[in-house]
Amino acid sequence: MVSVVRAIVLSAIAQVALLAILVGYLFNHTNDTALQYAQLAERNAELRAAELVRIEHNELQVQFSNERNSMHDYINKRVDLRISQALKEIKK
Prior knowledge:
mainly alpha, 0% strand, rod-shaped
């Protein structure tokens, strides 16, 4: 009878020890997995931020280019107007 009780107690202790080992393993594994996902999310966020900066930079470059072209057209029109006015003055 004593040996049966002893076997039950030893098996219970073994189960608790195995459960503690399993919990420790799962805890470490989930921490590692969470760290990997966090690093992945950080890399994706950095790439997305860089992409947004590049898009914004390109939009600004297009805007500046359009403004330069508009200014160039305005100056050409003003010069043409002055030339035509000067020719009209000369013809009078």
